[in-house]
Design goal:
Layout: H1 6-10, H2 15-32, E1 38-40, H3 42-51, E2 56-62, H4 71-86, E3 91-94, H5 97-104, E4 118-122, H6 132-146, E5 153-154
Parallel strand pairs: 2-3, 3-5
Antiparallel strand pairs: 1-4, 2-4
């Protein structure tokens, strides 16, 4: 159930709120990476979602302008979004892939760039992750759903 006032329902989410959520998302990624709680790549994410969806706490979908014409990628996004909605996994769109690459170490061993179109954050080693930044991001996702924005877009802060 959504506990929002009429003013909150009729207005867009403020830029300040979006900035706060962007910073919280940055904190989540920074703390998840050293714990090995990040899965990067559309195919790797799909495999992880198939094997253990209950362990996924957040799904990030990232694109650049030229990706809008990639039909296969858009189909993957649609399927991932549907799966996440069905399994109560929060989803965010991220519009700054360069910043996302900096946060998750955007290159594989050997210097090959990572596929950052989909990034999953999972619980560390089978335990439930208690993180105030993750709670803030999840709260933002819940509020967005109340506003009928099932996949809100987040601006990651410039580093």
């Amino acid at each position: 159930m959504c506990n929002m006032t009429l003013e909150e329902l009729s207005g867009d989410q403020s830029t300040e709120s979006m900035d706060t959520v962007g910073k919280a998302l940055e904190e989540v990624l920074s703390s998840a990476l050293p714990q090995g709680c990040i899965t990067v790549g559309v195919y790797e994410a799909a495999k992880s979602l198939n094997v253990d969806p209950d362990n996924v706490v957040l799904c990030l979908l990232a694109t650049e302008e030229e990706d809008a014409q990639d039909v296969a990628l858009q189909i993957h996004f649609t399927l991932i979004q549907a799966f996440c909605c069905e399994n109560d996994i929060n989803i965010l769109r991220v519009n700054n892939m360069r910043c996302l690459a900096e946060l998750v170490g955007g290159v594989k061993q050997g210097g090959e760039p990572m596929d950052l179109h989909c990034v999953l954050v999972t619980n560390p080693h089978g335990s439930t992750w208690k993180d105030p930044a993750l709670n803030k991001v999840n709260g933002f996702c819940k509020e967005s759903r109340c506003l009928d924005q099932w996949v809100p877009v987040i601006n990651l802060p410039e580093r």
